[in-house]
Amino acid sequence: MSSQDIEAKEAHPNGVPEPETQPAPAKPDPASEIPNGGLKAWLQVLGSFLLFLNTWGVVNTFGVYQHYYKSTLLRDVSDSDISWVGSLQACLLLIIGVATGPLFDIGYFYVLLTAGSFLVCFGMFMTSLCTEYWQVMLAQGVCVGLGSGCLFVPSVAIVSTYFTTKKSFATGIAASGSSLGGIIYPIIFVRLEPQIGFGWATRVIAFLMLGMLLICMAVMRVRVLPPQKRRLFELQAFREIPFTMFSVGEFFGFMGLYIPFFYIETYATNKTPMSASLAFYMLPIMNAGSAFGRIIPNFLADKTGPLNMLLPCSFISALLAYCWIAIDSTAGIIVFCVLYGFFSGTFVSLPPTTVVSLSPSLSVVGTRMGMNFCFAGLGLLVGTPVAGAILHSGSWLGVQLFCASSVVVAGVAIVVARISKNSAILVKA
């Protein structure tokens, strides 16, 4: 027996080498596990696209309901009162995010998806039976709004967990679903209502919503959840100037931005030589412009940063709103709808990725999105009814100035957020 064998036997008397003690391997960085593409990731984009289509898409459709209610179903109700239905629906879509964000964070995605799908479909079916203002408010304003609120934050939060370098682009594709909803649903309603009536035209929309939401339930999957429960509010976030000022910008932006979406058909009918049949298409045209405005800027935002892209788009939207004052021709209003839809679309598609960029970790994204959307919802709640009250006094100029000035204030707040995050101009932010 060699000396090496004797030494080995003494070191391992049982003849079996003892396992070497090694440090436990470090846990991989969660970001390295994010697929950033692939079938499963893009299926989440498809599901989110359909959720946007049946939440924001329904909000973007309200302009055609506003015109129908004022001209037919609710003739004795003021424009301001009717707009409260749409603004409440949109406000609940956003403000319910205060609760749904943390619920998503602790694993209740499928509960939110199921409950939200039921409420939006049930609300639309009930809307088809309405004949009084209070009924419309409860069904279309409250019920659809609550359901949309259950669906919206999870739809944007889940996409952000599947992508890194393509995050803004993927979110932009998903957000373009709201524009598609704002195109197809108004056309469906206006084409079917004269033939089968208000009730069945609305029920057709509700059945389409049900089918698409069932697809969402089939394809959407949660990839990762935060390791601990989250609060409804993360007060620490308001100590961060970039997040706080961005939220203020969201409040004023949504206060003004949706006014044309609610009133453009009425304006085109009353203030331009356009026929009523053509005026109806102004809302779908604006939403078509918005579809491109939610994809192209988001694609660029992956390279420039979401704040850098949102900042110029907000000021261009304000400039277009001021230009709206001088428009009184058919060609002019069509061009306005395309351009305004394009640049204002960034206010829906870019905030989710902006919130992600302003958050210290993915674990608080759901909570912070809910907080941010709360600001946006409050702005949207008051904006269009105030515009309706101004319009009731007969002043389209006042409506246009209120719209444009609100967006200017939003742009200034976003500038402060951008400088607070990084004062260097030529950097991604």
Automatic annotation (TrEMBL):
Instruction: Give the membrane topology, semicolon-separated if more than one.
Output: Multi-pass membrane protein
| One Pfam family hit | MFS_1
Q: What molecular functions are annotated in GO for this chain?
A: transmembrane transporter activity
Ranges of biased composition (kind: Basic and acidic residues): 1-12
Please give the start and end residues of each transmembrane region: 41-62, 82-101, 108-127, 133-157, 169-188, 200-220, 241-264, 276-297, 309-327, 333-358, 370-391, 397-419
Q: Which InterPro entries match?
A: MFS, MFS_dom, MFS_trans_sf, Proton-linked_MCT
* Location within or outside the cell: Membrane
Which Gene3D superfamilies does UniProt cross-reference here?
MFS general substrate transporter like domains
Which domain of life does the UniProt lineage start with? Eukaryota
Q: For the region Disordered, give the residue spans.
A: 1-30
Q: Where is the Major facilitator superfamily (MFS) profile domain?
A: 40-423
Does the record's keyword annotation contain Ribonucleoprotein?
A: no
Give the family per the record. Answer: Belongs to the major facilitator superfamily. Monocarboxylate porter (TC 2.A.1.13) family.
Question: Among the entry's GO cellular component annotations, what is one?
Answer: membrane
Q: What is this protein called?
A: Major facilitator superfamily (MFS) profile domain-containing protein
- Known SUPFAM superfamilies for this protein? MFS general substrate transporter
The alphabetized UniProt keywords are: Membrane, Transmembrane, Transmembrane helix
Does the record's keyword annotation contain Membrane? yes
